[in-house]
Amino acid sequence: MAGMSMKIMSIVLFLALVSQCNGNMCEEGDVSGLNITQTKTGRQVHGINEWQVDIITHCLCSYSDVVLNCSGFKTLEPIDPSLLRIQGKHCILKQEIFAYPLSSASFKYAWNTSFPLNALSARTACP
After folding, report:
1. How many domains is the chain partitioned into structurally?
2. Which of 10-14, 48-52, 56-60, 84-88 has the lowest mean pLDDT?
3. Which of 37, 47, 51, 81 has the greatest number of C-beta atoms within 10 Å?
């Protein structure tokens, strides 16, 4: 009986995740399945807070070349260009976020406060 309950819970969780992504339908450039969170790491760089940015998918789609709004973005901590490339007012995430729920990409930066990063576009691929 416990095995049956676990199967039912798994199905409900799967359906809940898929429903957050419009039934798993993605369109080119659709970023509605991405969630961006920022948390303090507890580390300081030259006396300034370090922040970790996590970009998480709740869909069954892969995301690549995610473009973030970075207008005014600053950091005292160098960011590895293989993770994130800053081009003027845009930042391009160079990590792929794979096609399964809760897959994520991340990078860190150091500044007094968190910066309001939001996804503008991305290349998507859905099963």
Report:
1. 1
2. 10-14
3. 51
